[in-house]
Amino acid sequence: MSGAALPPLPTEILTSGPLRVAEAWIDLYGHMNMARYVALFDEVGYALQERWELGETYTGETRKGLFVVDVAVSYKRELTAGTPLTLALRLLEADAKRIVSLMELRRADDGTLAATMEQLSVHADLTTRRVVPFEPPVAERLRDLAAVHGALPLPAGHRRRLTCRG
Questions:
Q1: Residue 104 buriedness (CB in 10 A; 0-12 / 13-18 / 19+)
Q2: If you write DSSP's letter for every residue of 47-67 in order, what string do you get?
Q3: 165, part of any domain
């Protein structure tokens, strides 16, 4: 990537298409297994990051990507087989090498918040396997997006647990 200025990222909170709790995700208690929540956050969140230009295309072009180093999951509501879902992703914080994002899993039928996951990720060079800074124009866009998303209200009852600062 060159040092030229990049156009701003879309500022809306990213939302997945429709999802549905699969029967295979149900545990012996008759609800969605806790590990499946995290897998869904990971799979769908990764796909949504493409719209921030940090997904598979970015990695293919730069040989850099995001390594998750910490997560904070909060389970709010039980989910059962067949429940329709949506997943939303926003950027809460960004610095030269890190981002903190928030994902919200909601029932698509009534908007009930089922779970949240904050995620701290570092920017890494996949060749050296070392943390590296974002290119300055990328870092600037991410900080600008975090300023917009960070000013929005958090889901009711959500308490921030992760930060870019050590």
A1: buried
A2: HHHGGGT-SHHHHHHHSEEEE
A3: no
* CA dist., res. 32 & res. 55, Å (int): 27
Cα–Cα distance measured from residue 51 to residue 9, given in angstroms and rounded to the nearest whole number: 8
Q: What is the pLDDT of residues 120-153, one digit of tens each?
A: 999 999 999 999 999 999 999 999 999 999 999 9
Q: Is residue 160 domain-resident?
A: no
Domain of 145 in residue numbering reads as: 14-150
Strand partners, 66: 123
Give the Cβ contact number of residue 12 at 10 Å.
Answer: 11
User: Residue 8 domain-assigned?
Assistant: no
Examine the pLDDT at 78 and tell me if it is beyond 60. Answer: yes
CATH number of the domain to which 130 belongs: 3.10.129.10
In a domain, 46, yes or no: yes
Domains contained in the chain, number: 1
What's the pTM value of the predicted model, to 2 decimals? 0.93
